[in-house]
Amino acid sequence: MSGSLPAIVIPLQLAEKGARLRGRLPLRAMRRLAAMCRDDTERVAVDLRFERGAARDLYEMTGNLSARVRVRCQRCLEEMELELRAEPRLVLLRAGEDPAAFSPEMETLIADQPVALSELVEDELLLALPMFTAHAAGACPGAGRAVGVPRADTARDGVRTRPKPFAVLGGLKRGDK
């Protein structure tokens, strides 16, 4: 299946058919991920394969997910572009099957019930999201500088002064903005 993706899927049924889903999903359909982004007009590229595994009774979902999203750098608080990539590999189980029967490093999904494809994709992308979104090392425009604090090279009467780390708090106490 390519292009237009279904809203609801039953992963085990897709695996029995050996289906492949390729297309794009709107970021705004993934409310948790969209809430972390500065713009929800982006689209997520989806390429998922549902197939029978090496063992006859093993079903798997594998594939690639990618999205380019706008987020806030946690270091300088400026907007930045972040490339999210996930390569999910899940063992698809029926309700009641024991996940412990599979190797511990394999993720499992109870997949015999309908699930929103956008939620499945969103979960995988959230796992790929870094804990701390920041520009690459050395590329952050505000690195080494606290917000609202004068730069270290500020001169007063020809004498260089060091910034006071809590100067912003003093301004707040006086009611300055």
Automatic annotation (TrEMBL):
Known InterPro entries for this protein?
Answer: YceD, YceD_bac
Keyword Thylakoid assigned to the entry: answer is: no
Keywords tagged on the record: Ribosome biogenesis
Stored Pfam families: YceD
What's an example Gene Ontology biological process for this entry?
ribosome biogenesis
- The superkingdom listed in its UniProt entry is Bacteria
The keyword Acetylation appears for this protein: no
User: Which sequence ranges are marked TM in the entry?
Assistant: none
Cellular component terms (Gene Ontology): cytosol
Report the protein's function. Answer: Plays a role in synthesis, processing and/or stability of 23S rRNA.
- Family the UniProt entry places it in: Belongs to the DUF177 domain family.
Its recorded name reads Large ribosomal RNA subunit accumulation protein YceD
Q: Which organism is it from?
A: Candidatus Muproteobacteria bacterium RIFCSPHIGHO2_02_FULL_65_16
